[in-house]
Write a structure and sequence with these properties.
Length: 186
Amino acid sequence: MDVELLIWINQGWANPWFDTFFIWISEKYTFSFPLLAILVLYFGIKYGKPGWMLGLLILLVPALADFIGSLLKDFFLHPRPCFEYSQLLRKPGGISKACLLSTGGMPSNHAINFFAVFTFLSVVLQRWPLTIVFISLSILVGISRIYLANHFPSQVFVGALIGAILGYTFAWLSVKCWPFLGNIMR
């Protein structure tokens, strides 16, 4: 079922617009890092010292999540689909750099990082409109990893689950340690 869903998304959804969009949203230098920078600057400038504290935590969450994801990849040793099924899969934008660098795919670090950061922000800020935007972006990043054949759907799902748990835990601890964080947007 994992392979069938992967092929359905990778081939069945194929079109030039999705190729461009999913390559962009999956790229850390043109999407992830600029988005983090915008969030940090926004909260810091808008809310002063508590906002800068939140910004620092926004940077620490994906660093911790990425580290945990890398440890889990070494533990699970579950290969990426671009290694196991390369003949069956489309390669939008050419050969994926991720397949050239890392054979491990379980869990998806992209999914862990986005779900961790956006779950963290959703819990701390408690604003439903933002939560909907955050969940939507996280899901789009997860789908991009499947569409680009860098991860099986199960790898993205496990990454999303781990990321959500990490984000919630980190938010809970942060608000306990620094109660003012829970009042930033109120």
